[in-house]
Amino acid sequence: MNVCIIGAGYVGLTTAAVLAKLGHTVHCVDENEQKMAALKRGDVPIYEPGLAELLTDYASRLFFHHDKQTYVQEAEVIFICVGTPSDSKGKPDVSYVNRAIADLTPHVNDKQTLVIKSTVPIGTNERIYNHLKNEGKHIRVVSNPEFLREGSAIYDSLHPDRIVIGLRHDDDRSLSVMQTLYAGIHAPYVVTSLSGAEMIKYAANAFLATKISFINEIARLCDAYGVDVVDVAKGIGLDGRIGPHFLQAGIGYGGSCFPKDVAALQQMAYEQNVRPYMLEATKTINDTQLNWYVQKIKRTLGHMSTKRIAVLGIAFKPNTDDIRESPAISLIKKLHAHGANVIAHDPKAVLPNVDVKQAKTIEEAIAQADALVVATDWDEYKQLNWAYVKQMMNGNVVIDGRNSLPREAIMNAGLNYIGVGRG
Ligand code: NAD
Ligand code: UGA
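That is the input. Now the predicted structure with nicotinamide-adenine-dinucleotide docked in place:
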């Protein structure tokens, strides 16, 4: 099929690469001229494992443009993958989607299928359909939310747990279009209304965020009662009704989606006079988790103004260079504000304008450090030689903000280990 993708970010580029691998011809359009020029040269603007390789392998079917018109006109399927960030009140800002739709409206025709992949508030797909109809465009509109995780985006897109398709009740053609598009991907289909698909996306993210906040609250209780939260997560996670995933306690969830999507669903609830008690609690726990942990670090280290602290991790999670809403950066800022001499490190992400030095190597970060804090659970940090770390450091405190380090090995090296709710 001939596909046009509007918005070449984490989702748009991954979708483009995967659809090209499946045999389709894909034209990516983005209003960011610099990004498109880089992609045309073969430079990939983000770090996502396997993405650069796919873009190279299927370059003969992948094209990057700044101008939409021709590629929208010629496409059988048009995807909208532009961002939907939070506005200052936590409401989703759909202006990028609105602009993309306004731009393409004159160029679409009744034979095409318009697929909304961006995460959009309930009712947006229906509104887009009605707008196009009012403009005399009887194009089919499909809601096809995305569930990929950054860091494993290509794998997740090729092996999704499910494919959710939202359709209008009178649309008897789009499901087979989507099945043809995704032929080669084996996953159950969930077919629902346009609004049903929108709600599934928000509910999925809100549920995952709630699991994290739940285990973070249990971690605080574990600390108070001298219990190890890792044992508790294992003990409850083996119950098939609960499941082992998203029960890793830490310094809180971040990224471009959980914080904004929990806030968005909360706002949508208030708009309908529904009090979202669960979402409020999920957000409150996450908003207070870092302060709770910084208090714990302060109790361990005493006055921070005399301390050199190596913070390992800048990205919001491992295997990505994405720093949007990164808890690691919030932690770096808080430690710096407490007067600590912070030196940060990340294998891929770059510290934005913060008055803190970024080390090029882990060695440079930990040399002479009084404490080492792991803020992002990259494999590089889990695999450190702890005897060597002890030699390099001035102090002996290892603070595991992601409960991802080998506690025994660290303690055997003569270091003090402080986790999150580890008793
Ligand atoms: P992103 O910010 O990485 O990329 C968005 C791209 O769209 C940018 O390159 C921007 O220049 C471009 N753009 C914006 N308006 C445009 C327009 N009118 N015309 C052409 N290009 C335009 O965003 P993302 O992280 O890929 O997220 C996109 C959507 O997918 C969001 O709604 C997000 O909630 C959802 N989502 C993201 C992820 C993720 O892991 N990042 C996962 C699932 C769903
Ligand atoms: C998340 C969802 O997992 C995806 O399904 C969804 O498509 C995506 O949001 C989205 O809508 O954008 P992502 O944000 O890329 O994906 O990464 P996650 O692996 O979910 O991690 C999010 C945050 O939660 C990270 O800060 C991570 O460190 C934290 N986390 C995750 C925990 O603190 N504990 C856990 O057990 C798991």
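The radius of gyration is 23 Å.
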